[in-house]
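Agenda item 2: adenosine-5'-diphosphate complex prediction
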Amino acid sequence: MMIVFLGPPGAGKGTQAAKLSAKYGLPKVSTGDMLRQAVAAGSQLGQQVKAIMDAGDLVDDQTMGEVVKERLAQPDAAGGVVMDGYPRTRVQAEFFDQLLTDSGRGGVGLVLLLTVAEDLLVDRLSKRRVCLQCGANYHLEFKAPVSDDVCDCCAGGLIQRDDDKEDVVRERLRVYRELTEPLVAYYRAWGHLREIDGTDSIEDVFTRVDAAVARAAAA
Ligand code: ADP
Ligand code: ADP
Ligand code: ZN
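Presented output:
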């Protein structure tokens, strides 16, 4: 099944997507992680997107379409994936529907919208730490790594993302409201949107996420 996480920066999309991916063996496709890896590697894509990401703005729809199309053509994506961070605009959502139809996958199976109040988002992002090597993510209070700057999973170095500084976070939230929030209505109209309160603990939110997936799979 094609599962899409939707919600503002800091809502917990990456965290919940990783748990679903581990439980069901579906690959997690995080466009943010893919772009950060490209920046770290200094590839042509990375050089093209670095300044845009640092400013908290969105990479253009055409580039994102190419990135996702190439990723979904990999054999591990044939049986479904968990999308984290794509689609993020109306144009991306329409492109994605077309891509899934053209490749015989029949469209998005479930959209999980995580909702969290804005002040809590800012707090979560200011204490987020990420591993550039494996994409694992942590929170200094709620999901603390054993050591503040070493990844528990792969022993890579943990960093604070440049775009998790407060002024960039405000810009990302503005961009979310302007360009991504309209997708809530888009997917609600189409009927496979489930809204989940993302305020509670990681485990409690996952219980609800998992129940929504089980219902969608049975439908
Ligand atoms: P978060 O998980 O905090 O919402 P991401 O890691 O998904 O943030 O994305 C980080 C940045 O990568 C975005 O601010 C944007 O610049 C770029 N990006 C990621 N996915 C997309 C996308 N689908 N469209 C455009 N830009 C994207
Ligand atoms: P997103 O991908 O939506 O931007 P993340 O999954 O990266 O969000 O979560 C943002 C930060 O908040 C991370 O530091 C993560 O560890 C933490 N976090 C995620 N879910 C919860 C939760 N339910 N309660 C407390 N902290 C959380
Ligand atoms: Zn790691």
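Discussion summary: The longest strand covers residues 110-115.
Owner for follow-up: CH.
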